[in-house]
Amino acid sequence: MRTRMTDSDTCPGCGLVAPAEQGATHAYMISSAACWRRYSAILGREYSTPALMPTHFLTVDVFAVQHPGDRGDRRARQSVWLHLAGLHAVLRQGRKPEYRYALLNKLADADCDWPDQPDHAPFPLVAGDICVELSVENHIEIVRRWADTALASYEEAVPGLATRIAAFA
After folding, report:
1. Distance in angstroms (rounded) separating the CA atoms of residues 7 and 23
2. Which residues lie below 8 Å from residue 168, measured CB to CB, with a gap of 6+?
3. 64 near 87, Cβ under 8 Å?
4. pTM
5. What's the DSSP call for residue 69?
6. What are phi and psi of 9, to 5 degrees?
């Protein structure tokens, strides 16, 4: 006897393939409902586990850059560039989270004509790959890897990405 496969849905942002479901999504970061639900579960775990809050910003940044939204929407373009700048500052420049927060505030207040979102290579790790039941140490490790691989996907597709990011900072 054959088992009938359920319909699947591919997230238009990160590429997660998951069973299709109905549900909430973000206003301008385009994702599937399944991907948004998984991201929300990660956030819920982080908000309820104080030891995870020091890396919570990475979760926010990586989801934002993996779900860029409509290229014609200024908010979506700004979001991708801000969160790429945050990831770059922490993961490539070794800056502290406090620097990243100040940088994102400065960029959010900037009167800037945000350029088109940069291209990216396929993402090897997405929200659907993050298990919310991991130990604190393993959660921090996988979120850092998730963030690093997402940034690397942009760096692979856009030579000189660091220079473009620096132009905003």
Report:
1. 15
2. 81, 85, 107, 110, 112
3. no
4. 0.91
5. -
6. -135, 135
Average pLDDT, the chain: 90
Task: Look at residue 2 in the predicted model and tell me its pLDDT.
Answer: 36
- Contact between 97 and 57 (Cβ < 8 Å): yes
- Report the run of H or E that residue 10 belongs to, with start and end: strand 8-10
Between CA 81 and CA 84, with CA 83 as vertex, the angle to 5 degrees is: 65
Q: Is the pLDDT of residue 127 over 90?
A: yes
Number of C-beta neighbours around residue 92 at 10 A: 15
Residue whose structure tokens are 């140490």:
137
CA angle 60, 62, 64 (to 5 degrees): 70
State the average pLDDT over residues 63-73.
Answer: 90
Would you state the structure tokens that stand for residue 146, as one six-digit string?
Answer: 């998730």
